[in-house]
Design a protein that fits this description.
Blueprint: E1 9-13, H1 21-30, H2 33-37, E2 39-43, H3 46-56, E3 61-64, E4 77-81, H4 98-116, E5 122-125, H5 130-133, H6 140-143, E6 151-156, E7 159-163, H7 170-176, H8 179-195, E8 203-206, H9 215-230, E9 235-239, H10 241-249, E10 255-258, H11 261-272, E11 277-281, E12 287-290, H12 307-320
Parallel strand pairs: 1-2, 1-5, 2-4, 3-4, 5-12, 7-10, 8-9, 8-10
Antiparallel strand pairs: 6-7, 6-11, 11-12
Helix pairs in contact: 1-3, 1-12, 8-9
Length: about 325
């Protein structure tokens, strides 16, 4: 069954051809849910995706298209853009490959260009190998060059967490946290959520210290929250870190701003590890990915879970359509 053309086109990069990316993409699309929500188009290798379909034992066929606008979103059929940047002979399952990393980088750049031009409404990335990906095109072309305006955001049902700091040592978080950084995170979160169709976003802000009492709350978090409130933003905080995430699960907030990596990651992975996905709040286009790696150790066995891949595609479709987050 074909899906009407008013559904958003979502560009899906297939992930590392040597890993479980093609398998989990095939499994996610085989559910039929993505084609009911959007027009998914794979950016990648026909040979690699065919291999993924066979590993997944999925009842799917591939249709090569020349332009993303040709996507028809027919259940049981995968539309794919293949620019022949990878030779099938260079695919070796279960082992990192420089050529596959370079191809993956090219696919990510292609998806980024499609999304930034508006020809695709979002880009979704299947799992990649970060080390070999560095050998390909500059990541700045994919995610934008200014890291201060992008915030790693994890999504799992009703719990959505934006991180002020991502891969930063905790002692550096305590030293570097300022009211300006807190306010910037609130501004960007509020702006992006409104664009997603959440017209009056409710934002909860976690404290840094036990019971949200400490020098960072006094010098940075409280002033940042108060400045945002003075602008009319619906934001509450700082809230004790041991309760704020439970409040998010209960639906009190549309999103919670965490101060550092583990504060948010432990909460999301404890609450709902299966089916969570990641996005970059404030990236120059809507970009989502899975929360797991290439899993070289189980490649080819047909046992990789597709839940995160499916969640990322469906969240991208809902956000791209201005329908807000999926619960």
């Amino acid at each position: 069954m074909s899906v009407t053309v008013d559904k958003p086109i979502i560009a899906i990069t297939q992930g590392d051809p040597c890993g479980v990316g093609p398998e989990v993409v095939a499994k996610a699309l085989a559910t039929g849910e993505p084609t009911r929500a959007c027009r998914p188009v794979i950016i990648g290798s026909i040979e690699s995706m065919q291999q993924g379909i066979e590993i997944a034992s999925a009842n799917l066929s591939l249709r090569r298209i020349e332009a993303i606008e040709e996507a028809q979103a027919t259940e049981g059929v995968i539309d794919i853009l293949d620019t022949n940047v990878l030779d099938a002979a260079d695919i070796s399952l279960g082992a990192a490959s420089e050529k596959c990393g370079q191809a993956n980088g090219a696919w990510l750049v292609q998806a980024a260009e499609l999304a930034q031009s508006g020809r695709a409404k979002a880009s979704v990335m299947a799992p990649v190998n970060g080390e070999v990906l560095k050998l390909g095109p500059d990541a700045g072309q994919v995610f934008g060059s200014d890291p201060t305006q992008k915030y790693l955001t994890l999504l799992s049902g009703p719990l959505r967490i934006v991180h002020v700091f991502d891969h930063v040592m905790l002692e550096d978080v305590c030293r570097k946290l300022t009211s300006e950084l807190v306010l910037a995170a609130i501004h960007k979160t509020n702006e992006v959520l409104i664009n997603f169709g959440i017209h009056s976003p409710r934002i909860g802000v976690a404290g840094l210290n036990p019971h949200a009492h400490g020098p960072q709350e006094t010098s940075a978090i409280i002033p940042g929250v108060k400045a945002a409130q003075a602008e009319g933003i619906i934001v509450t905080g700082p809230i004790s870190p041991d309760t704020v995430f439970r409040q998010g699960i209960e639906g009190r907030y549309d999103v919670i701003i965490a101060m550092f990596h583990d504060q948010g990651h432990i909460a999301i992975k404890t609450w709902g590890f299966v089916g969570n996905c990641a996005m970059f709040m404030g990236a120059p286009y809507l970009f989502l990915s899975v929360g797991h790696g290439t899993a070289y150790d189980i490649v080819g066995k047909g046992i990789a879970s597709h839940e995160m891949m499916l969640a990322a595609i469906l969240q991208a479709a809902s956000l791209a359509a201005g329908q807000g987050f999926l619960d």
